[in-house]
Structure formats: structure tokens, C-alpha cells
Amino acid sequence: MKKKTQDAKTENDIQNDGDMQAQSQADANASTGDSDTRADAGATDPLQKLTDECNDLRDKLLRAQAECANISKRLTQQHQQAMRTAGLELARALLPVLDNLERTVDAGAEATDPKIIADGVKLVRDDFVKVFKEFGVAPVDCIGKSFNPMQHEALFQDFESPEPAGTVTQELQRGFMMHDRVLRPAKVAVSADKPEAATDEGDAVSSEQNSSAES
To answer: Phi then psi for 134, rounded to 5 degrees?
Structure first.
């Protein structure tokens, strides 16, 4: 009798274990089904799709803004560095000229012949001109040229010059250009008609107009 009772309990335990396994499997299947359903719903939900796209575009925008900020910072640093070293080559080329000038000054302090000093200064001037030429610096053409307000600065009018009006007749201070840019305009005198000649011409024009009116 006791043995039959134990066998019955064993069968009940086996059946209970099978029921629990079946229930667990059913719960797992239900959970998987719910997850698949939510995934399918999210994939087909237009609002969720737009939200994901907006988030993706926002991330790309933030990355692009950060990259632009880095580029701007780098360009600013490069520009500042270029400005600090812009005259480096010119300064290096002028150092030998300065050396020659110092030698000329030292020699002039002991020289008794003014010609020696003058020759030394001319050599230094030639060195300056050579360096300027290497860097595209050249004097502005003036004498005999038509007045150009972009390159010339008129200080006074020359009424005694036989040149046509508007012609540069004197150079009072030399001007210079660097390539196509004016470093300093030349200060010049410009030919002009005498005031008396202008008055005579005006009277002649008035007489002609009066004669035409009488006719």
C-alpha cells in the first residue's frame, strides 16, 4: 500500500513538472511574440521613423558644427602666424644692407675725404634698390606722365611748364609700388594752363557766342 502511494506521488510530480515547463514555454513564446509585435509596430510607425531620422540628422548637424568650429580655429591660428612672419623674408634680406650701412658709418667717422663717405652711401642705396627689386618694389613713373590720382599726389600746379595741362613736370618725393599695389604715391607738380590764358579763351568764346546771336 505504501509503495502504491509513493508511485502515485511520483507520477503527480512528473505531471506537475511537465505542466510548469509547458507554462514557461508558453510565457516565453508570448514574450517573444510581444517583442516582435512591438518591433513591427515601431518599424511601421511613421512618427517613430521621423523621430529616428530627426535624431540622426541632429547628430550629423552637431558633428558638422564641431568640425566647422575646428576649421575656423585652425584657419585663425594660421592667419595670425602668417601675419607675424609676413615680413620675415624681407627683414632677412635687409640684414646685409644694415651691415653695410654700419660699416659705412664706421668708415665715415675716420674718413677725411667726403667722396669716400658719398661712395659708401651710394653702395648702401644700391643694395636697398636691389632688395626692393627682388620683392617687386619699384618706383612710380612720374616725369612726363599724365597725372594719375591713383599713383600721384599733386602738391601744386605748374603754370610755367610748356607741357600740356595735366602732365607731371616735377617729382618732389618718389613714390613706390609693390607689384600692382601702391605703397606710397609720388608727390608731384602738375602742369596747368595759366589763369590769363583761361580768361582769354573764355572771352573769345563769349565773343563768338555774341556774334552768332547778332547774326
So the answer is: -60, -30
Neighbours of 89 (CB within 10 A): 11
Q: Say yes or no to pLDDT of 136 above 80.
A: yes
Q: Is 147 helix (H, G, I), strand (E, B) or coil?
A: coil
Q: CA-to-CA distance for 145 and 19, rounded, in angstroms? A: 115
Q: 160 and 117 share a domain?
A: no
Residues 119 and 166 in one domain: no
The verdict on residue 157 lying in a domain is: yes
pLDDT of residue 5: 46
Q: For strand 168-173 and strand 186-191, is the pairing parallel, antiparallel, or unpaired?
A: antiparallel
- Taking the chain, what is the end-to-end CA distance rounded to the nearest angstrom? 164
Please tell me whether residues 131 and 145 are part of one structural domain.
no
Distances (CA, A) of 181 to 99, 139, 146: 29, 12, 19
Query: How far is it, in rounded angstroms, from Cα 23 to Cα 20?
Result: 5
The Cα angle at residue 32 between residues 28 and 36, in degrees rounded to 5: 170
Domain coverage including residue 127? 87-135
Q: Are residues 128 and 145 located together in one domain of the fold? A: no
- Convert the pLDDT of each residue in 147-167 to its tens digit: 999 999 999 999 999 999 999
Q: What pLDDT score does 213 carry?
A: 46
pLDDT in tens, 98-127: 999 999 888 888 878 888 888 889 999 999
- Give pTM, 2 decimals: 0.56
